[in-house]
Amino acid sequence: MKNVLTVAAVILTYLTCISGAYAGIVSSEQVIVQQQSIYNKQQVIEMLNNVEVQDKLVALGVSIEDAEIRIASMTDQELNQLNTQMNDMPAAAGGIVGVVVTVLVVLVVLDLVGVTDVFSFIRPIN
Predict the structure, then answer these.
(1) φ, ψ for residue 95, nearest 5 deg
(2) Domain boundary assignment for the chain
């Protein structure tokens, strides 16, 4: 009789501890939004781990810890907006101007050596 009561008590304990599992339908859109949020946060954290970014933040008076706290408290919308702005920015400010200046310098050097005659006002060295 004692064994029956023990088994009954154990079964009753398990039955009271088991909570009902509720299954619901999760749409693809909900999964995409959740994954996009995780991706955006990872992108911003990776950017923050860049040494140049850390140096710039310190130069602006923002500690790395404060930046990490702020990123952790950003909403999904803020993270998405920040990521969109970062992706739309040019990789290097003035990159096109640098390329044009480099090409012009190369042409001037080639004119000075006498290989080309692009600029009529430059006379070859020889």
Answers:
(1) -60, -40
(2) 28-89, 93-126
What is the C-alpha separation between 35 and 97, in angstroms, rounded?
A: 38
Q: Which two tokens stand for residue 47?
A: 């950017």
> Which residues of the chain form beta strands (DSSP E)?
none
Half-sphere exposure of 92 (CA within 13 A, CB side): 6
The per-residue pLDDT for range 62-105, each reduced to its tens digit, is: 788 878 887 777 788 877 787 777 777 665 555 566 667 777 77
Q: Where are the alpha helices (DSSP H) in the chain?
A: 2-17, 28-48, 51-59, 64-72, 76-88, 95-113
User: E strand or H helix at 98, and its extent?
Assistant: helix 95-113
